[in-house]
C-alpha cells in the first residue's frame, strides 16, 4: 500500500496536500483498492463552502458508491475535470493525476486532527 510521507490523512481515507492555504484532496490508495474499479466521479461542489466531514462528491465503483468527505473545512475552488472522462485515474494514480478537488482551507488548525503517514498506516491495519 502506497502512503506518501508528505501528505496528511483522514480516518475517512482522504489525503491532503497543502500548498500555502490551498489543500489538494483525493482518496487514498487504500480507499481506491477497497472500492475496486472506479467508473464515475461526481463532484458538484465547486464554489461551495464545506465543513470538515461534509460530502464534497461521490465515487462510483463497479460494486458500490462512496461519499468523498472533506478532511478540512474550506471553499472548493477547483475540481479535477480530467476525472469526468477518465475516472479510472483515481485507481492508477490516486496521489497524482487522480486528485479530486482543491480547496482554500478556512481553519488550518484542523490539519492537526489529521494523521501522518505512519499513523495512517497503523489505522489501516
What is the level 1 CATH name?
A: Mainly Beta
What is the string of SSEs from the N terminus onward?
Answer: EEEHEEEEEHHEH
How many domains in all?
1
Q: Walk across the major sheet and give the strand order.
A: 1-2-3-9-8-5
CATH superfamily: RNA polymerase II/Efflux pump adaptor protein, barrel-sandwich hybrid domain
CATH architecture: Beta Barrel
What does this 3D model show about the protein?
Helix content is 18%, strand content 35%. With 125 residues, the chain is an alpha+beta fold. It has a single domain (8-112), classed as OB fold (Dihydrolipoamide Acetyltransferase, E2P) (Beta Barrel), CATH 2.40.50. It is globular and about 35 Å long.
Could you write a compact summary of the structure shown?
With 125 residues, the protein is α+β, with helices and mostly antiparallel strands. Helix content is 18%, strand content 35%.
Secondary structure elements and pairings:
Elements: E1 8-9, E2 14-19, E3 22-27, H1 29-35, E4 38-42, E5 49-50, E6 55-61, E7 65-69, E8 74-79, H2 82-85, H3 89-92, E9 101-105, H4 117-123
Antiparallel strand pairs: 1-2, 2-3, 3-9, 4-6, 5-8, 6-7, 8-9
Features of the shown structure:
6-stranded antiparallel β-sheet; OB fold (Dihydrolipoamide Acetyltransferase, E2P); 3-stranded antiparallel β-sheet; alpha+beta; 9 strands; 125 residues; single chain
